[in-house]
Each structure stands twice: as structure tokens, then as C-alpha cells.
Amino acid sequence: MNALRRDASVALAVARKDAIAELRGRHATVSTLFFAGIVLLLFGFALGPDADRLAAAAPGLLWLAVVFAGILAVSRLHLLETDDGALEHLALYPVSRQAIYAGKAIGGFAVMLLIAVLVLVAVGILFAVDVLGAWPALLATAVLGAAGVAAVGTFYAGITVRLRAREVMLPLLMLPVLAPLLLGAVKATAAALAGDPFGELGAWLQLLVAFDVIMIVAGAATYGYLLEDG
Amino acid sequence: MPQTTIYVSPRSLGAPDRRPPAVATAELARLFAGSPALAGVTMTIQGGRAIALLGPNGAGKTTLLRIVSTAIRPSYGSVEVDGLHLNRDAAAIRERVAYLSHATGLYDDLSARENLAFAATMIGTPDAASRVARALADVGLEARAEDRVGTFSAGMRKRLALGRILLGSPSLVLLDEPYAALDVDGMTLVDDLLAAWREVGVTVLVASHAVGRLEPLLDGRVVLERGLVVDVHGEGVKHVPPAPPAAVRPAVAGAAR
Amino acid sequence: MKTRILGLVALAAVIAATAVALFVVPPDQNQGDAQRIMYPHVASAWLAYLSFGVTALAGIGWLWKRDLRLDAVAHSAAEIGVMFTAFAIWGGMMWGRPVWGVFWQWEDPRLTTTALLLALYVGYLLLRRLSDDPERRATRAAIVGVIAAVDIPIVHFSVEWWRGLHQTATIGSPDRVLNPAAPMVFVGSLLGMLGAFTLAWLYLMIRRYQLARAEAAREEARRMDRIMTARTVEAAR
Amino acid sequence: MSDAGFVIAAYAVIVGGLGVYTLALWRRLRAVRGPDDEAR
Q1: Backbone angles phi, psi at B219, to 5 degrees
Q2: Which residue in A72, A147, B20, D32 has the most C-beta neighbors within 10 A?
């Protein structure tokens, strides 16, 4: 019990530290959001001005933009740890590795959720989709999707942050792993927007829950090896 | 020697002669990208002693300290800290070791106080707020406590990193070039810290070029060159010359021969 | 010597199974000759899954026991698994064109899943090339191997559902041959191909492992040599 | 292309690929081990 409380305070301290740094001028969220916005705009150009086609493609565009932005966001969050050997020091504290993972993932989750919600609003405006009508299901999808991207992104960023070729390796390793999340989130969003005519929304949300749980467990179990690195 | 005013948290360490060696290495070697930074170091450092680690750049001082701190693993050989084996008890070793490295590990966007408060949570310091305030005062950074570390000079960063060590109660303190980048007052601070740790029986291992300055403060010295111990002097440190190749054991199983 | 015998047996088995699949088995009523592609396709897919399972288990073994031999097993299995994955995709495409009229059928869950597998494990192999320290390489690779392996079932389910949650499969997927209702000659031919490919896999695994160990031995000798040079230089002073 | 063409293409790449990989493996092994201890 005591150990659990200590782990919780460690995780919160890590997340809080990331949040402070973010608010004080790292501005990873702002630049990432801007990036997501540009991606949406370019999708619009790529698909042409046909409003029906854009509305049909909206769920896919939404989540592609979120996932692409997520790669940037998690890599920015880990870049903070390259401040003057911070990652090495983080590994030297006598705390459970799972707590450090949880702390980094919480920070990632907060950023990802913000991005997902704002991109959702932007999609509603740009592609004329009724986002407000189905907001509870969409919010649930956003929460689960953000959690999945953060869970996976945290340890892939942890692996690649020490590599020379990190800009290439992060998306290369992360995107295939995120494929089921992308699928589930897009399907859930589409079902929610259409008013769930086939009653499949629950199943897709379950898939997202399963993805999140498996990735969080796997990430927590392996993050320690990654911190020690070798 | 003047009575030091720095607060060093004591740790029950046991009688000096009953303690296991603070550091015991056997045929310790580490390669980076195929070239050896340490080529086989076998030595013991007695608990409660303050030992200098001397030698030119690239002699392996930093590598040795990083291995003992658990930051990196050895390629060959083994290490024990206070009788705890590096491969099996790394977590327990981390509880006992404090490490001042070249890289301070401080966050630029956090203030000095926030950096120490974060470290206090991670170390598990009781009465964190007052201990942080005390540590800031002890390293002479009270006036700049609320400023972002990104605005600090290299010397101030080093002071803050020293303050972080004061938050824990280590049994072994590893210092990598503590005098580097410090002004005269800062160097005196390091001297005082060394005296304070020595007083409570904490083992100290200092890698430094400042031989003359350290001499009166320490019990003994180890001289490294090209990854090997070439000279040992003083109390509390023993060294065995490298054994024949057959005695060099990879740190992991299954390294092909 | 034993490995060589295994290799010869595997060679004979692959030739025999190929001959049976090409010349003995009659054409399928619906798919015609194209169903002959099924046998190596399914066998390749099976060995891809087997390989990646081995990669994950050996990776966990490395993290647990810290034995570099397990890392060599993981590396060998990943490389061979990528090859069989590529074969499975190629076979699926060659089958898809005559039967479906297209090379790539998005509604076939096997094909899309396999394509993702290829991406996952090519990443694994690329990551391995980026570290020059054997232990770091092993640890990073083991983590990625484990994550990729736990991802595979989720990928499979998601793609399967994606095809249509409440719609029964309308398209003949390559795995329909596994249907026990299929004539015995098809089942027998498939089992023969599976056995032959598995023998070949075993042989390649052994040889690839030997290669990995030989390379490791060379690297290790070089490292040891560097250490001994450092010592003699110091001793001579 | 007829069905037979696709069958041939599939088998050529898969079975042929197995052969090519095996040969490449032998060459890599021989290059690393040296020619003297090939008989294993």
C-alpha cells in the first residue's frame, strides 16, 4: 500500500514536471496542434471540394491527423529528457520503473487528449460533420484513442530518443503497432457520427479498451529495461 | 578544519571494520563501439573512506563511476556496492548511491527549487520542502531559488546538482570533476561537502584533476590510465593487477568465444 | 553433420511437396489451378507466425536470463520470419489476381494483417542495425519484438472485424482450404507442404543461428583483442 | 496471364526464394567462419 502511494506520487511528479516545462515554453502542444491543423487542411485539398466525400472521409482524416500529431507529441515529450543527461538521472532514482513509465504516459495522455478533442472540433467545422450530436461516444473514443497513442508512444519514444536516426525510426516502429488503434478509432467515430445504425460502436470501443490495456501492461513491463538500456 | 554547517543526512552504516567493501570490482571492463574505456579493473574500496580517482582524459574514470552508479552495465567482470551485486540488486544500489555526473540531469524549464522538489519526490526525502530549502541554502542558491535553471551558469548548475545529493542519505557518493566550472567559493563548498560526508562515514569516490587540492581531504587515491589501474596509494583502497585473459568473464551469459 | 542430413531431408520434402501440389492434386472446382498457390502461401504464413512467436519468446528470455544465445535465436527467427511473411504476401497476391481479379483485396483480413506484420518486423531488423553494443541491441530488440508480438492478435481481430462486423465472409479466403470438408487430397497436400516448409524452416533456423553465433564470436574476439592490447600497452610502460 | 502463369510466378518466387536465401546463408557462414571449418 505504501509502495503504491509512493509510485503514485512519483508518477505524478514526473507528469507534473513535464506539464510545468510544457507551460513554460516548450510549447510542444501548440506546435503539434498546428501540425494537425495543417494535415487536416491538406487532406481537404487532396480529396477535393466535394462536401459529401469529405464528410464520409472525416473519421479517417481525423484519426490520421491525431496519430501523426501524436508521433510529434511523444517525441517532444521525451526530448525534454535529453536536457543535460536528464534521462540517465531519471533512471538512477530509486523508484519503480513502472511509476516513471506511468508518469511519462500520463503527460502524453493529457497532450494527446487535448489534441484529439481540438482536432475533433476542427473536423466538425471544416468537414461539416455533426460532432456535437454524438459527443459522449466521440469523447469516449477520443479518450481511449489518446490513451493508446500515449501508451505506445511513450516507450517507442523512449527507445528512439537515444538513437541517431530517431526522426525516421519513431514513426517507422510506431505506426504499424498503432494500426489496430487507428482502425478501431476510425470505425467507432464513423459509427458514432452515423448514430450507430448497426449497433457496432460498443464492439469498437471494446477493441480500443483491449488495445490500451495490453499496450499499457506491455509498456510498463518493458520500460524499465529500456531505461537501463543494455 | 572548521566545523561544517552543511546538513548531511546520516545513514546507519555499521562499524567501519564490519562493513563490506563500499566498492568491489573484479576484472571490470567496458567497451564503447568496440573500443575499451575500461580494460580490466580489480579493486576494493573500504567503506567510509574518501578516495580520489585520478588520471588523464579518457583514462576511464567517468566510465567507472557510471558503472558503479548503475547508469551503464559492464561488458566484462562484476561490481559489488556495499556487498550488493550490480546485476541482481541494482535497485538496492540505487537507494545507496548518489552521483554527480558531468551532465547535471537538471531540467532547464524548471526553477532551482522545482528541480530539487522533483528530485526529493523521486528520492523519497521526508520533510521534502524544508530539506529542499536547507539544501538550497547549503549550496548558496537561496537567492536564485525561483529562477529557471536554463538561465544558470555552469557553476550554478553544478551547485544545484550538489544540492540534489544532499536530499538523500547515500552511503556512497560519486563525484565526477566536482570542481570543474566552479568559482573559488564553489570549490570551498565542495571541500566542505567532502569533509561533511567524511565526518558521517559516507564513502566518497572523486574523479578529478585537482590532485593538490584533494590530497589533504582524502584517504587514498587510485590512478587510472587507458582503462587500467596504474597506481594505488593511501588507506582504504586495494588493487590487484589484471589476471590472464582466461579470468576475464563477459558480464552476460552466452557471449561467444 | 546432423544439420546437413536435416537440410537434405528438407530439400527432398520441399521438392516432393511442390511436385504433389503442382502435378498430382486436381484443379479446384471453383478456383481452378490457382488453388495450387494456396499450399506454399498457407505454409509461409504459418512459419511467419511461428518465427515471430520464437522472436518474442527468445526476447523475453534475453531480458530474463541475459544470455546472448537467446538474442541470436530471436534475431535469426525475425529475419527468417520476414522472409516467410514476404512469401505469404506474394503468394496471396498471385492467388488474388486470378480468383478475385485484383492483386490486393482489402477485404481479405489475412493479406492486410500480413502486410502489417512485414512492417512491424522490418522495423525490428532496422532497429537492430542501429546499435553497435551487443547487449543494448539485444535489449532494444527484445522490447520491440515483444510489443510487436502482442500487437499481432489485436491487429488480426481488428482487421477481421473491419471487414464487416455483422457480415459473414462472402469471399473465399486462402484459409478456406483448411476447411475439413475439403477433399482429402487437398488437405493431404496442404499438410505435406506445411511439413516440408517447417523442416526447411528448422534447417534455416539452425544455419542462421550458427551464422549469428559465428558473427558474435568474431565480434567478441575483436573486443577481447582490444582489451588485451590495452593491457599489454600498459604493461610495457 | 493465365492461371498457370500466376501459379508459376508464385512457386518461382517462394520456392526459388527459399533456395536463394539458403545459398546466401551458406556464403555468409563461410565468409565468417573461414573455409577450413566448413564441415559441421
Answers
A1: -90, -35
A2: A147
Burial class (CB in 10 A: 0-12, 13-18, 19+), C2: exposed
Residue of chain A whose Cα is closest to the Cα of C124 = A173
CB contact under 8 A, A177 and C139: no
Q: Which residue, chain included where needed, has cell 500529431?
A: A69
The distance in angstroms from the start CA to the end CA of chain A is 31
d(CA C15, CA C88): 18
Q: Would you tell me which residues 178-207 of chain C have a C-beta closer than 8 angstroms to some C-beta of chain B?
A: none
Domain that holds residue A117: 2-228
Instruction: Quote the minimal CA–CA distance from D3 to chain C in Å.
Output: 6
Q: Are strands B23-32 and B35-45 parallel, antiparallel or unpaired?
A: antiparallel
Residue type, A18: D
For residue A97, what is the nearest residue in chain B, using CA coordinates? B91
Q: Which residues of C are less than 8 Å from B225 in CB distance?
A: 234
Residue C17 Cα distances to B111, C23, C34, C80, C198, angstroms? 71, 10, 16, 20, 12
Which of A66, A79, A84 shows the shortest CA–CA distance to A18?
Answer: A79
Number of domains in chain C: 1
Please indicate, yes or no, if residue C79 is contained in any of the structural domains. yes
- Region D31-38: mean pLDDT is 68
Q: Which domain holds residue C42?
A: 36-165+179-236
> How far is D29 from C50, CA to CA, in rounded Å?
24
- When CB atoms are compared, the residue of A180, A226, A229 closest to C155 is A180
Chains that touch D (3 or more CB pairs under 8 A): C
For B10, other C-beta atoms within 10 Å of its C-beta total: 11
- Count how many domains chain A has: 1
Residue of D nearest to C92 (CA): D10
- How does pLDDT run across A77-101, given as a tens digit for each residue? 888 887 788 888 999 999 999 999 9
Q: What is the pLDDT of residue D40?
A: 45
Q: Total domain count for chain D?
A: 1
Cell representation of residue C103: 492483386
Pick the CATH number of B23-247 from 3.90.1150.10, 3.40.50.1820, 3.40.50.300, 3.30.2160.10: 3.40.50.300
What is the distance between the alpha carbons of residues A67 and A50, in angstroms, rounded to a whole number? Answer: 25
Query: Which residue of chain C is at minimal alpha-carbon distance from D33?
Result: C214
Q: Looking at the complex, does the CB of residue D6 fall below 8 Å from at least one CB of chain C?
A: yes
Residue A49's pLDDT is what?
83
First-to-final CA distance of chain D: 45
Q: For B66, what's the count of Cα atoms within 13 Å in the CB-facing half-sphere? A: 23
Contact yes or no, C with A (3+ CB pairs under 8 Å):
yes
Give pLDDT, residue C169.
43
With an 8 Å Cβ cutoff, are C68 and B254 in contact?
Answer: yes
Q: What is the pLDDT of residues C76-88, one digit of tens each?
A: 999 999 999 999 9
DSSP state of B109: T
* Contact across the interface for B118 and A95, Cβ inside 8 Å: no
Order of strands, sheet of B50-54, starting from the edge strand that comes earlier in the sequence: B97-100, B172-176, B203-207, B50-54, B220-225, B228-234
